Amino acid sequence: MPPRDYPLEPFWIPFTANRQFKAAPRILVSAKDMHYVAEDGRAVLDGTAGLWCVNAGHCRERITEAIRKQAAELDYGPIFQMGHPGPFKVAERVKKLLPGDLEHVFFTNSGSESVDTALKIALAYHRARGEGHRRWLIGRERGYHGAGFGGTSVGGIPANRRAFGNLLPYVDHLPHTHDLEHNSFSRGQPAWGAHLAEELEHRIIALHDASNIAAVIVEPVAGSTGVLVPPKGYLERLRELCDKHGILLIFDEVITGFGRVGAPFAATRFGVVPDIITMAKGITNATVPMGAVAVRRGIYESVVNGAAENAIELAHGYTYSGHPLAAAAALATLDLYEEERLFERAASLAPHFENAVHSLREAPHVADIRNFGMMAAIELEPIPGKPGARGYQALVRAFERGVLVRTTGDVIAMSPPLIISKEQIDELVGTLASVLREMATQNP
Fold it and tell me: How many CB atoms neighbour CB 395 within 10 A?
């Protein structure tokens, strides 16, 4: 391995134990299709699509060429009171993938920005309708909605909130739906847990009153907390309760969007149309940062038509909203999805993926396996007194064996690019099985 020509210390790495990582770094230097290349020259099978985002595989020529061409024609164009063709074209393409009357798209640069944008739109919508008193935002325990103030506030992962205090006021949380006693080792949607949606009415609304609640935000399938799949009927009941009480329902589809569940969006797959959808990651195949928020027609019209003539209707946006390079990447990515039928491919691969991951049921220290579409999680029994240690050990050992997985505490998550083959799925799961057996002999 050639010596590094850069120091590690100046870079404060996000969501990483910096001292631990810098003592034994794992550096990736290139990528192509299903594999990364580590700095020591080893090929590493990508079992996580980067961070749930490289849905079409790495360094696809169609996308990289579109970015190069755009950079030479228009590197940047202001989007406040001006415009350029890219985001208009992307908005139209995204609109065609969305269910119901989700017809208007606001561009951001990340999932975190998309969530904060969605929450602000929800508040602005109610104010435009004369219900500015609707200020409460309802998230869910174990939910992940990015790293902004709004997303962290409605998120429900304690470690992500611990250092920052209460953040936004007027926030409450629904219970999560994961219960090993009732739904462990479920294949797809568990049968138990739909009743937990009733907590919105029985506890949240009873406490705060529906007239004060602006929106409920949930991930259709919770990804970063360890692939928590919604029980059958759960999302449908949330939709009914939100309709009943005039509350907006937001689906955070930053992970589930663009084919991850075998459909353009989880809203389509589950047959539940939310009022707002957040997205990012797969929209550009992660080549250029981009996020977006799609809203139903009535929300857009209420905000836009409710403002005074010539007034800025929504005082919100970002310098790089709809950036030309991001728009070019998005258009090329959407072309790839369509031409290679990657959403349909994900749906056809999902049964093989499900059978493969559930073959680990008898592997050492496996407490649960969950899956939906091309998402799966293997929950490990923690080492007593050392939560997260077993999961981290699995990540490191898998990487040493040439496979990239992701861990959240003691949960191993897999979400490979949608171009993965059945043979590569078997390699991914087989390597993990070997890792778990090896770990068991050394840490029984």
Answer: 18
HSE-up of residue 185 (Cα within 13 Å, Cβ side): 10
Residues 6+ apart with CB under 8 A from 189: 229, 230, 231, 232, 372
* pTM for the model: 0.97
Domain chopping of the chain, boundaries:
18-56+341-442, 64-181+206-225+245-339
Write the DSSP assignment of 69-125 as a string of letters: HHHHH-S----SS---HHHHHHHHHHHHHS-TTEEEEEEESSHHHHHHHHHHHHHHH
CB 340 within 8 Å of CB 56: yes
pLDDT in tens, 43-53: 999 999 999 99
Q: How far apart are CA 8 and CA 289, in angstroms?
A: 24
Cα–Cα distance, 21 to 92 (Å, whole number): 42
Place of tokens 């908005």: 91
**Residues sharing a CB contact under 8 Å with residue 16, sequence separation 6 or more, in sequence order:** none
Helical packing angle, 342-358 and 422-442, nearest 10°: 30
Residue 7 DSSP code:
-
Judged by average pLDDT, the poorest of 50-64, 155-169, 238-252, 342-356 is 155-169
Torsion from C-alpha of 147, 150, 156, 162, nearest 10 degrees: 70
Helix (H) or strand (E) holding 30: strand 28-32
CATH number of 18-56+341-442: 3.90.1150.10
Above pLDDT 90, what percent of the chain?
97
User: What is 227-260 written as a DSSP string?
Assistant: -BPPPTTHHHHHHHHHHHHT-EEEEE-TTTTTTT
Q: Specify the residue for token string 């611990």.
A: 162
| pLDDT band with cut points at 50, 70 and 90 for residue 165 | confident
| Bridge pairing between strands 411-414 and 375-380 | antiparallel
Q: What is the C-alpha separation between 25 and 224, in angstroms, rounded?
A: 22
pLDDT value at position 354? 98
pLDDT digits (tens, 9 = 90+) for 73-128: 999 999 999 999 999 999 999 999 999 999 999 999 999 999 999 999 999 999 99
* Fold that domain 64-181+206-225+245-339 belongs to in CATH: Aspartate Aminotransferase; domain 2 (3.40.640)
Mean pLDDT over 145-170 rounds to 93
Q: By CB neighbour count within 10 A (0-12 exposed, 13-18 middle, 19+ buried), where does 199 fall?
A: middle
